[in-house]
Amino acid sequence: MNKILIADHHYVTVKGITSILKCINPDIAVEHVIDKESLLEKITYNQYDLLILEIKIFSNIFAPIIRELKGLNPDLKIMVFTESNEDLIIPYLCGGAQAYLYKSATKEQLREALQSIFSMGFYYQQELFHDLIHKMKGGNMHPYTSLERLSEREREVFYYLVEGNGMLEIANLLQIHQSTASIYKKHIFEKLQINSLAELINFHNKHKVYMSHGNEFE
User: Fold this and answer.
1) 91-111 pLDDT, tens per residue?
2) Measured CA distances, 195 to 187, 189, 200, 201 (Å)
3) Is-contact 144 192, C-beta < 8 A?
4) 156 and 181 Cβ atoms separated by less than 8 Å
5) CATH 1.25.40.10 describes domain 143-210
6) Fold for the domain defined by 3-126
7) Which residues share a beta bridge with 80?
């Protein structure tokens, strides 16, 4: 791999990753973007071997980000390197990412991840899968509890509700009428067979690993 793009708004993170990459291979060319617009432009007009992605540069980390990027460059390898504490490893890996690593990882773990991608084309952190297996054994997740039955707009309303926004706030955020937002909320409750906001939040906390934004897991 000779050309790598880092998408992250934290300067220190970018410098640290670049330093590790140069230690692995001094000839690696590293570029950097800090927002979604710059990222999409770079991916559209340039070829990269690897994208190291902080998903928080997107306004909605639950959106089908990987699918969008893969659509622009199907051969692009993507390593999610994030500070987000959402349980998104399965949706992102199933969506096409080759690696998923939290920023709490040590320098050695990051180096191991990068070397694994360079040599094998992927990296799966053992600790994350250990946690996943324990959650599955505890009955906290089931693939059929995804949000696939909701429309794209309903999923947006869903997440804003979970974040604690009221109907007026959601209407303003989505630039729709408050009555329209209320209709979306009603449809969400009906489709998920829940009766209250408390149940909605419980649904999110229990099944969020399998939430998706399309016909496939992201």
Assistant:
1) 788 778 999 998 988 999 999
2) 11, 6, 8, 11
3) no
4) no
5) no
6) Rossmann fold (3.40.50)
7) 53, 100
Q: Give the span between the Cα atoms of 138 and 140, in whole angstroms.
A: 6
Structure tokens belonging to residue 136: 């599955």
pLDDT at 148: 66
Interstrand relation of 99-102 and 77-82 (parallel, antiparallel or unpaired): parallel
Position 137 pLDDT exceeds 80? no
The reply to whether 3-126 and 143-210 are identical in fold is no
- Fill in the amino acid letter for 71: G
In 3D space, the residue among 93, 69, 50 whose CA is nearest the CA of residue 216 turns out to be: 93
Give me 215's structure tokens: 């016909």
Name residues whose C-beta falls within 8 Å of residue 89's C-beta, 6 or more positions apart in sequence.
100, 128, 132, 209
To the nearest 10°, report the CA torsion of 138, 66, 189, 186.
170
The domain segmentation of the chain, as residue ranges, is 3-126, 143-210
Mean pLDDT of 27-40: 94
More confident residue, 166 or 191: 166
Distance CA 82, CA 52 (A): 9
Tell me the C-alpha distance between 216 and 69, whole Å.
15
